[in-house]
Amino acid sequence: MAQYLYFSTLESLCEESDIIVVCDVKSAGNQEYINISTEGIDLTPYTVSTVNVIEALKGSIQEGDSVKVKQMGFYKSLPDAETKQIDGYLKKGNRYILFLSTYDGLGLDVPCSPLNPQQGVVPIEKESGYVAGNDSLFIDEPLDSTIERIQGALLNKSK
Hints:
9 strands; 18% helix; two-stranded antiparallel ribbon; seven-stranded antiparallel β-sheet
């Protein structure tokens, strides 16, 4: 079972994220073995999705960009227990706020990863526009309010 970092404040989650985006999932469920080791070959099973950026909140990414996102395990045959428990795998056509880490500093050409299943993947109800998070950092509130809180957290950390 994978171990994930958890964050007690929105500021710490934002600070640790390389990329923060509001996005729609263009494709989901691609199962791939990916090497994330800098010391040889260590193929690990991941479910890979492609998202379209609706709004970029942090990172070297822009509205309209496509980003590949990997999540631990094969969602059907070999899922990550925590991600499966909260039904956290990305789904085609759904909208999310994603808090992502990249592997740019390691020189690896691999998809981004959510920081953790509960806080790194925040679902948005498309019809109502409300954020429906799996964690106490994200309450049932309009998307605009959540974006304002994220922007405030980013400003607080930059001071």
